[in-house]
Amino acid sequence: MTSKTRWRNAAAAVAVAALSLGTLAAVPAMAEEPAPDPAAEQYRPYLHFSPERNWMNDPNGLVYDDGTWHLFFQHNPSGTRWGNMSWGHATSNDLAHWEEQPVAIPQTFDEQGAAIEDIFSGSVVVDEGNTSGFGTAEDPPMVAIYTSAYTPAHPTHAGKQAQSLAYSTDDGQTWTKYEGNPVVDRDSANFRDPKVIRYTDAATGEAYWVMVAVEALQYKVVLYRSDDLKTWTHLSDFGPANAKGGIWECPDLFPLAVDGDPANTKWVMVVNLNPGSVAGGSGGQYFVGEFDGTTFTSESTVADETLPTGEVFAGFNGGDYEGWTVANEPGNWANGPWTDAPAAGTLPGQNPVSGFVGAGLVNGFADHDWPVGTMESPAFTIDEPHVNLLVGGGNHPHVDGTQLGNEPPAGRLLFDGFEFADGTTLADTGWAATGDFTTEPWRNPSTAGGDYHLGQKRINTWEGGPKGDDNLGDLTSPAFTIADGEDHLSFLVGGGKRFNGTLEVRLLVDGEVARTATGPEAGQLNWQSWDVSEFAGRDASFQVHDDATGGWGHLTVDHLVLGAEPAQARSEETSVNLVVDGEIVRTTTGRNSESLDWTSWDVSEFAGREASVRIIDNNRFGWGHVLVDEVMFSDAPAAPRIEGYDWLDWGRDYYATVSFSNAPDDRRVMLGWMNNWDYANDIPTGSWRSAMALPREVSLVSTARGPRLTQDVVPEFDELEQTELAYTDASRPIASGSETLPVKGEVVRIDAVIAPGDAEAVGLSVLGDDESATRIGYDAASARLFVDRRDSGSTGFHPAFASLDDAPVALDDGRLALTVYVDRSSVEVFSGDGRTTITDQVFPNAGADAIGLWAEGDGATLESLTVTPMHGAMYAEAGVDGATAAPPVAQVSALTGPKRGPDADGDFVVKVKVGQGEPTTVVRLLEDGHVIDRVYRSSDSERVVAFAITDAAPGEHRYTVELENSAGTTDGGSLVVRVAG
Asked: What is the DSSP string of 114-167?
């Protein structure tokens, strides 16, 4: 092993950072609390980068410089949810092992301590020619180009987003903001995420900087040019094109040789979007084309398709609703949601609507998202096997058993629904308060906060004390007796969602917590119910417990009812439904997108029966509208347009993906955030939230559709494979049903070739136990690869999480080749040629590590299978080794020249002789607290590990050694080597 000593002292770097940031206020300090062992936290990934503590989202500033890969990322240094946006920082010398560094560019505060600027996403370049003047030609600077997201407290740019600079002259350890910020300002509230590249005109040799950023709400990438990174000129725009759901974010632009031929180079434009991706929520699309230094021209944009074949039942093009029954909510100024006639397209205040056909469509955005209503078609007889229709708008599915109104259940209303006489407080009626709720008892019950409350008053812990979301305390009711037949306690609850017990309503029986519930992370209240039949005849109390601070750190509660039946939850749907005999038998919803796309219902089982189409908008809030057009009857399903676009990944958890700048050997390495904004704040992790996907090397290959990306995990991860422990299975049939393989693992690579044959579906299961597992499989009828996490462990923390994510994949000679990386709380699936990937988080039950095969039907064959355990790259590196105790101590020595006195030339060897007995699986060499090299060992490795040090600077070098196995870590001793000056 060869190491180059280059680390500075970490404490000194932090001190310099404080000085270099000058007028930037420090990030608010977190309260001191015991730091958990990251390796011991459930769901903590061992292969993927995750911050030791707190929130992380988009990767940004990805850059390689002088042997070091730099990962900057969106970071909240003060909490595990989004906020206080700053740039975190981590470094690696191999893309696998990352060392977290101090916060690089923190949120900016004014002299009064108010936050005035959040540091949003961007990029970092190595300014080799010192064009910016921030460094020198001999010591070029690193320059960060990032989005300044100015808060409402900013004195001149409140609410705006513009592009700014910061620079570093010490290898990215400390950063100084440019005093001339911002450097690009379009007077826009949604101009962000600059990626800067160095472009050289092949014909003239002229070189300059090119920036791609987004106007997020306009689905537009804007391109700029600069010679010095400070002054920018607009070049051109790209878009809208292909997927236009939600907003566009985090663009990238880079060249790639097609099939490795440098004479045939194309350019790739990456555009991430949220929501509206192919799997739902957040995702990334890309375009392939040409860039001439000014304009990007896509060759892969999909034109609007013609109508599928079939009979148009409703096209809404004649100026009226063609006999549909329209029920608009009365009292809204624009007669919303539908008005009396179809819309011609985009309505006032709406983002551009696209994807509809002809002169009109159903558009529920009249009066914006607030009004609710229904529409229903005339009855028709089903005489074709498919109903095809264009649908857009909000992603709020129909849920069976919900009500369109807000009616309470029958039963006994407790505490008068909090409708006490004015001036009467909770305390006056026997409620006990603690904490902040005791300071001003007149605040509860409240007449403010929350939607869908009943009456005028309710409990609101935001209003219940002087600190808003930071109020802490309990509100506990007087005792009440649960009578026979009062089997359910129902109540309205809104506000914040926590699953760690810090924010919940409780049923107390005999002083013990017997039932709990939390809020929806939204202002609107909805019904929840507890089955309390087992407590009949016993006294109970209702408690509102608020030990949560920060955003949504409160609860709103109203209308407690004891009754025989549970309350019906209120529907929040924006749905389109097929109704047969008064029952909804098929349903669909939008993708949180103003772009309509095809949905197809197989209705063959209802042939000859009478039906209607019912549109429901029962949602008043974000994306609380629905778009419908071209209802058709056909003998074939319509293909969704969105599946014809090019996606970086077909899973739910691969977003904000961009590439590293300045990578060596013309490598193009991309990194994505392994999360989804649908549920990012709610995933059930511990002291941290979010991880990055594994870094992927991408290339362009020829396909029938033109050049397209192929992706593979970077080869540096091959070094982590414990090949001597790999399990293999020979070619054999896969019986219908499921089987557990004689191999386990929660950090493994799986390589499999499967032939579905006559089976309906076939695949693997991972992270399984007797109750649940994540299924990875192939559906033969639809020719689709899928990851099914609907029964993968913990899924109830958000309704969007329990998903089946799939992608069209053609078999190769009847076979499917898969490579799967499993890492405790995620799966990344690569089809055989790397053309299709699915990345999903999963949160398995504790200890779930079973691996299995399954098939639905007979005829499937396992052609080959290899399951390879992997060393960890982060937090726990040992992997599988059978250790029962930490490694024995080692002997540490150095071979220097000459033998006496200081080393002469800075080239020497540090030798570690590991002890006998328990295995020593990992040997790490550290200098000044930084890992500079490591060796993985197996049971047949030599006992002596040699670390060759080169180019060590003159002076004293202090080395320490760490020894690790799966049972623990041992301090392997220290060594001082002096190098002559």
From this structure: -EEEEEEEEEEEE-TT-TTSSS-SSSPPEEEEEEEEE-TT-TTTTT-EEEEEEE
Determine the pLDDT at residue 33: 57
Active site (catalytic) residues:
58
- Cα distance between residue 197 and residue 254, in whole Å: 8
The Cα 175–Cα 252 span in angstroms is 23
Q: Mind listing the pLDDT tens digit for each residue in 533-554?
A: 999 999 999 999 999 998 899 9
d(CA 88, CA 104): 6
The count of other CB atoms within 10 Å of the CB of residue 929 is: 12
What residue ranges in 774-859 does DSSP mark as E strands? 774-779, 784-788, 804-808, 816-823, 826-831, 837-841, 850-856
Half-sphere exposure of 632 (CA within 13 A, CB side): 21
pLDDT at 619 over 80: yes
pLDDT band at 246 (very low <50, low <70, confident <90, very high): confident
Helix and strand numbers (H, E) in the chain are 1, 67
How big is the CA angle at 627 (ends 626 and 630), to the nearest 5 degrees? 145
Concatenated DSSP letters of 300-350: -PPPPPPPPSSEEEE---SSS-TT-EEEEPTT-TT-TTT-SS-B-SPPTTP
**Over residues 335-364, mean pLDDT:** 95
65: nearest Cα among 89, 47, 35, 38: 89
Please check the confidence at residue 723 and state whether its pLDDT lies above 80: yes
Instruction: Name the nearest CA neighbour of 103 among 6, 192, 18, 46.
Output: 18
Cβ atoms within 10 Å, residue 963: 28
In this predicted structure, the answer to whether residue 5 has a pLDDT above a threshold of 80 is no
State how far Cα 65 lies from the chain centre.
28
DSSP 403: B
3-state secondary structure 605-628: HHCCCEEEEEEEECCCCCCCCEEE
Alpha carbon 755 to chain centroid, angstroms: 33
- Of the chain, the percentage scoring pLDDT greater than 90 comes to 92
Mean pLDDT of the chain: 94
**Torsion from C-alpha of 78, 84, 85, 87, nearest 10 degrees:** -40
| The token pair that represents 827 in the structure block | 């799966």
d(CA 249, CA 253): 13
Give per-residue pLDDT as tens, 381-438.
Answer: 999 999 999 999 999 999 999 999 999 999 999 999 999 999 999 999 999 999 999 9
CA 953/CA 962 separation, integer angstroms: 23
Q: What's the pTM?
A: 0.91
User: Encoding tokens for residue 847?
Assistant: 């200890």
Report the alpha-carbon distance of residue 727 to residue 347 in Å, rounded: 60
Cα–chain-centroid distance for residue 533? 40
- HEC states along 2-17? EEECCCCCHHHHHHHH
Quote the radius of gyration of the chain (alpha carbons, Å). Answer: 30
Q: What is the pLDDT of residues 627-649, one digit of tens each?
A: 999 999 999 999 999 999 999 99
Q: Cβ distance 416 to 430 under 8 Å?
A: no
Token pair belonging to 141 = 């600077």
H helix or E strand, kind and range, residue 968: strand 968-979
One-letter amino acid of 339: T
Could you tell me the pLDDT band of residue 25, with boundaries at 50, 70 and 90? very low
Query: Residue 737: in which H helix or E strand, if any?
Result: strand 737-744
Q: Which residues does 582 contact at the CB level (< 8 Å), separation at least 6?
A: none
DSSP states along 639-690: PPGGGGS-BS-SSSS-EEEEE-BT-GGG--EEEEEE--TTTGGG---SSEE-
- Mean pLDDT for 685-700 is 96
Residue 343 CA to residue 337 CA, distance in Å, equals 11
pLDDT bin (cut points 50, 70, 90) of residue 322 is very high
Q: How confident is the model at residue 363 (pLDDT cuts 50, 70, 90)?
A: very high
